[in-house]
């Protein structure tokens, strides 16, 4: 029911303005003002910070170490106390166990001037690995009392174990950037890592038994050659790093993240079971680092910061009650980074999206055992029983006398034959979380699919008898509903609304089940303030394109959707409340609706829509997004309903020709992005490929899906035009016969 979605709706460009939704951080307070302030770490008693500062305005030409007293109520630049020599460049300070001395690396023995920063010849971001860096111990007056390393090459990034017995640091003394550990006095030196790549930024667990660190670990011949070449020049390109853990004796090396891009600045949560870190893995455009948290086993990733484009260097206070981090939020000048401190509020663990739950639901619902979940089939009944069992486990109340709501309807088996009509039946599965509230929110998805193509909705020719498992369409949405039901039942909060969790059947035959439920909904729940529909949320693409429909059905929705957007997502807004999915049935009953959809693809309505193609990172992020949106709606006093125009002021053109592509419906502004190309159709015959960006047909320019349809409307069968596409940054012109 989704393939013609954009022939009846208007795509509105999303405003990419970040808003804070930082529930783990309370009472955020800015500690520094101006310049580049970073790597702030607590003293053992939690009363002071060390940090490194560059601020030419105050004569600090390159990083020097300063101390800040946290016991003051308000802070100013005058509160910062220099505790390094003021010579050369320093990095990575850390308090010694007595709280009266600090550990840091410095180049001052190699020269009093600031060493030259690295220069990139090909535009890559580079870090300098200054060979003059050695590790020193100094008192809080800046007097160096001991030099711990004096081996040629880079020795830096040193930190002390919480038990005060060990120091870990990064060194090139073996010929590569490896982790080394030594006793607090510098004795008993031991190499911990030996894999090729930059191993650095290590911190101890709170029990002092493990380390968490970042590592580049190049794999391909090209990446290895580049790494070695840069290292020979005392440089690294820190653009591909993952988070690892290792025991302090060098055993049990484990890779925690597999996210891609730069994952760095890790620190153990006070429980030692989770890790907070900075990452740009989510970013599809430009520079964007946010703090994330992940379980030590690499599961249950969640976003911590939303504000600004740089958040890094997180560290928990010794008592675990505060988090200090660096950020460019509230900057007064471009490229300014300041240090912030906040009260840390642990997430209600029941509110963490559970990866295993999502996968388990989709895997079962999209299995061959259910034979495609055709409405009225045994497979549909099995799926309904599965959903009802989940509701029963959670203790949800039945919507009526049971969880199932049965309905009858007529289905036409051949759209071109008015006599091919037969009686059919189906059942919705509905559970209720009754919070004794005056307001109600419906969270829904359809669980039916095409079965073995008995009702002839498949997009694959001659596919009768083949199982259409519908993993994305719409086992993905069902998994989201079930996981949100679990969270809202099990969390510690009693929300200010009742929740109705509705799984519909008959959607593929014309929204039959949702229409049936919508007829009686207001009799049972007179004040339904919103219906949230998840239909096909399982195939988030590399551009992280997500469509959110129904935004115009209430004047409060756009701000809520904008505020809670996951980092890196390219969200396209639809105003209209009408579309080819179940939210339409509720919109027509004057209920505000929201519709979440990751777009169509080459497996849409085909037997190939299987579980192994699901993007679970995307499902998790979208379900978490919907949870935040739902929370905000529940706490909003008024959710007025607004009627929307289907065409939203723009007439959709009609056209008689096809190109044979699967478009990405997100409005990127640079053309129509092509998600797929159908075999033996005009685009494929002309050499157009998936991933191309269509910019022009003849002299008709294309910016998004509507201008594409407008260009098609001007053509007739047999017309030949030169079509312009962008492929990997290069413009190509291809001849197409329509």
Automatic annotation (TrEMBL):
Listed CDD domains: M28_like_PA_PDZ_associated (cd05663)
Organism: Flavobacterium okayamense
Alphabetized SMART domains for the sequence: PDZ
Cross-referenced InterPro entries: 6-blade_b-propeller_TolB-like (IPR011042), PDZ (IPR001478), PDZ_sf (IPR036034), Peptidase_M28 (IPR007484), WD40 (IPR011659)
PANTHER family: PROTEIN TOLB, PROTEIN TOLB HOMOLOG
Family: Belongs to the TolB family.
Record key words, sorted: Signal
Protein name: PDZ domain-containing protein
Domain (PDZ): residue spans on this chain: 657-729
Signal peptide start-end: 1-20
Gene3D superfamilies from the UniProt entry: 2.30.42.10, TolB, C-terminal domain (2.120.10.30), Tricorn protease N-terminal domain (2.120.10.60), Zn peptidases (3.40.630.10)
Superkingdom in the source lineage: Bacteria
Region span, Disordered: 451-472
């Amino acid at each position: 029911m989704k393939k013609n979605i954009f022939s009846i709706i208007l795509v509105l460009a999303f405003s990419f303005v970040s808003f804070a939704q930082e529930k783990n951080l309370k009472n955020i307070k800015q500690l520094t003002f101006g310049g580049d302030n970073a790597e702030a770490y607590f003293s053992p008693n939690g009363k002071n910070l060390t940090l490194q500062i560059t601020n030419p305005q105050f004569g600090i030409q390159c990083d020097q170490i300063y101390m800040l007293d946290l016991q003051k109520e308000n802070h100013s630049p005058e509160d910062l106390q220099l505790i390094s020599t003021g010579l050369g460049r320093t990095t990575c300070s850390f308090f010694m166990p007595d709280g009266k001395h600090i550990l840091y690396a410095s180049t001052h023995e190699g020269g009093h001037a600031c060493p030259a920063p690295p220069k990139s010849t090909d535009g890559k971001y580079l870090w300098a690995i200054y060979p003059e860096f050695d590790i020193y111990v100094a008192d809080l007056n800046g007097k160096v009392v001991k030099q711990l390393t004096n081996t040629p090459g880079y020795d830096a990034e040193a930190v002390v174990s919480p038990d005060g017995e060990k120091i870990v640091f990064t060194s090139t003394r073996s010929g590569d950037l490896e982790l080394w550990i030594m006793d607090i006095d510098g004795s008993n030196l031991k190499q911990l890592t030996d894999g090729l790549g930059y191993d650095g930024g290590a911190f101890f667990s709170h029990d002092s038994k493990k380390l968490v660190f970042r590592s580049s670990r190049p794999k391909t011949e090209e990446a290895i050659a580049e790494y070695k070449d840069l290292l020979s020049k005392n440089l690294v390109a820190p653009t591909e790093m993952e988070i690892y853990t290792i025991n302090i004796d060098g055993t049990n090396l484990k890779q925690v993240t597999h996210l891609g891009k730069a994952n760095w600045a890790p620190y153990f949560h006070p429980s030692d079971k989770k890790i907070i870190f900075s990452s740009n893995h989510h970013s599809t455009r430009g520079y964007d680092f946010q703090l994330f948290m992940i379980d030590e086993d690499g599961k249950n990733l969640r976003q911590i910061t939303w504000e600004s484009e740089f958040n890094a260097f997180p560290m928990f206070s010794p008592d675990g009650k505060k988090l200090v981090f660096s950020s460019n939020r509230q900057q007064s000048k471009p490229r300014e980074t300041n240090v912030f401190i906040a009260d840390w509020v642990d997430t209600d663990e029941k509110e963490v999206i559970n990866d295993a739950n999502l996968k388990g639901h989709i895997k079962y619902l999209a299995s061959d055992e259910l034979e495609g979940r055709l409405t009225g089939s045994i497979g549909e009944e099995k799926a309904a029983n599965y959903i009802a069992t989940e509701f029963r486990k959670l203790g949800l109340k039945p919507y009526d006398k049971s969880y199932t709501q049965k309905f009858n309807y007529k289905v036409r088996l051949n759209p071109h034959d008015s006599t091919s009509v037969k009686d059919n039946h189906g059942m919705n599965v509905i559970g209720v979380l009754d919070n004794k509230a005056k307001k109600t929110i419906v969270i829904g998805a359809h669980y039916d699919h095409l079965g073995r193509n008995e009702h002839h909705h498949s997009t694959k020719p001659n596919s009768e008898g083949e199982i259409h498992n519908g993993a994305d369409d719409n086992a993905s949405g069902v998994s989201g509903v079930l996981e949100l039901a679990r969270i809202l039942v099990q969390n510690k909060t009693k929300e200010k609304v009742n929740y109705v969790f509705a799984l519909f059947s008959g959607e593929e035959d014309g929204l039959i089940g949702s229409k049936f439920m919508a007829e009686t909904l207001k009799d049972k729940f007179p004040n339904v303030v919103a219906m949230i529909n998840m239909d096909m949320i399982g195939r988030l693409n590399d551009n992280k394109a997500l469509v959110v429909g129904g935004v115009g059905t209430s004047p409060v929705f756009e701000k809520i959707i904008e505020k809670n957007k996951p980092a890196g997502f390219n969200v396209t807004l639809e105003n209209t409340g009408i579309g080819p999915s179940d939210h339409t049935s509720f919109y027509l009953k004057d209920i505000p609706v929201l519709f979440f959809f990751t777009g169509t693809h080459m497996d849409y309505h085909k037997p190939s829509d299987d579980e192994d193609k699901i993007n679970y990172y995307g499902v998790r992020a979208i379900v978490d997004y919907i949870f935040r949106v739902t929370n905000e709606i529940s706490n909003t006093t008024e959710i007025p309903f607004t009627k929307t125009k289907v065409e939203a002021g723009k007439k959709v053109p009609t056209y008689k020709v096809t190109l044979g592509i699967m478009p990405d419906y997100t409005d990127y502004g640079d053309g129509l992005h092509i998600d797929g190309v159908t075999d033996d159709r005009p685009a494929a015959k002309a050499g157009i490929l998936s991933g191309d960006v269509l910019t022009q047909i003849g002299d008709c320019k294309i910016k998004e899906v509507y201008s594409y349809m407008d260009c098609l409307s001007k053509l007739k069968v047999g017309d030949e035009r030169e079509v312009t596409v962008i492929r990997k940054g290069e413009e190509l012109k291809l001849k197409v016969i329509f």
